[in-house]
Amino acid sequence: MCEECQGQIAYVEPPFCARCGNTVFTTDLCPRCQTNPLQIDRIRSVVYFEGVLREALHHFKYDQLTALARPLGDLLATYWRQHPMPVDVIVPVPLHKTRLRERGYNQAALLAREMARQVGVAVDERTLLRQRSTAPQVELDITQRKKNVQGAFRCSSDALAGQRVLLIDDVCTTGATLEACAVAAREGGAHTVWALTLARAR
After folding, report:
1. Do 14 and 158 meet the contact criterion of CB atoms below 8 Å apart?
2. Taking CA atoms, which of 61, 120, 156, 176 is between 20 and 30 Å from 96?
3. Are 39 and 62 in contact (CB under 8 A)?
4. Longest Cα pair distance anywhere in the chain, in angstroms?
5. Which letter, b or e, does each residue of 8-20 get, where b requires 16 or more Cβ atoms within 10 Å of its Cβ?
6. What is the residue-level pLDDT of the chain in tens, covering all 202 positions?
């Protein structure tokens, strides 16, 4: 990504919730995580979903500009080097097979591969599956999002058993999808589940 573009990106900086990564001002945990925390160990994000980064992700996700996987993956890898996480395997959030056929690729998988190539951590794209097609999350509120993806994922084998898993996705909005993936990974025997997304909503 060019220097001019990087200068227009708003990076996620502390203080943020130690668990879900949302902005906080007075405590280590946001109000939601104090009362009803997501069922995932940690969520971290590199930049905010706005401006030039939002445009780049739109082109990457919907306009077949898969070459953007490298500069976007660079952002994830750079974050990893600055903030290493205790994980054994990288797992991209999967698409349902119908959506995968329509789009032709899983943007989370492309990001995961590029990041993994740079940081030297194995990628598993086979074990965590999206077993049910879900409505797009973008038009749903937080309660609807959680219900929409509940039970949508499963593990096809015990390959994640005992593993420290890092989920990778492009954007975190409410964390509902990442939580549903984490629940499935835990049911498959994962020891811990963290998540790293390229962007997050403010």
Report:
1. no
2. 120
3. no
4. 45
5. ebeebeeebbebb
6. 555 556 689 999 999 999 999 988 777 899 999 999 999 999 999 999 999 999 999 999 999 999 999 999 999 999 999 999 999 999 999 999 999 999 999 999 999 999 999 999 999 999 999 998 887 777 777 788 888 888 999 999 999 999 999 999 999 999 999 999 999 999 999 999 999 999 999 8
Q: Which residue has the tokens 């706005």?
A: 50
- Structural domain spans, the chain: 3-200
**CA pseudo-torsion sign 110, 174, 145, 155:** positive
- What is d(CA 87, CA 75) in angstroms, rounded to the nearest whole number? 18
Q: Which fold has domain 3-200?
A: Rossmann fold (3.40.50)
pTM check: above 0.70:
yes
d(CA 129, CA 158): 13
Q: Are 4 and 154 in contact (CB under 8 A)?
A: no
